[in-house]
Amino acid sequence: MDKAGPMAVNGMPMFLSFRLVSIDDTKKVLERYNKIKEAVTNALSVLIETMDRIRAERKRLRSFPNFEEEEKEEDKDKNDNSGYNRCNP
User: Fold this and answer.
1) Which of 8, 19, 42, 83 has its CA 20 to 30 A from that of 36?
2) Which domain holds residue 36?
3) Rounded to 5 degrees, what are φ and ψ at 11?
């Protein structure tokens, strides 16, 4: 903004200088862009594959009958101290 000229009629500043990117620099930028794009694409594909595997495993586990109920019963048995109190007054 320090190189801006006087205000134009529409109230916006006028710039009297500009820079161009050479063809060689443009090629370098495009090469770097393509490398970054490929890396991001690979990372996203790995993430999607991992999420698909997790979903498949969850679906497989849900197919077991009473899977969640058995876990709740095991937790309840671990926390049940009523038998201990009866044996040891």
Assistant:
1) 19
2) 19-64
3) 90, 0
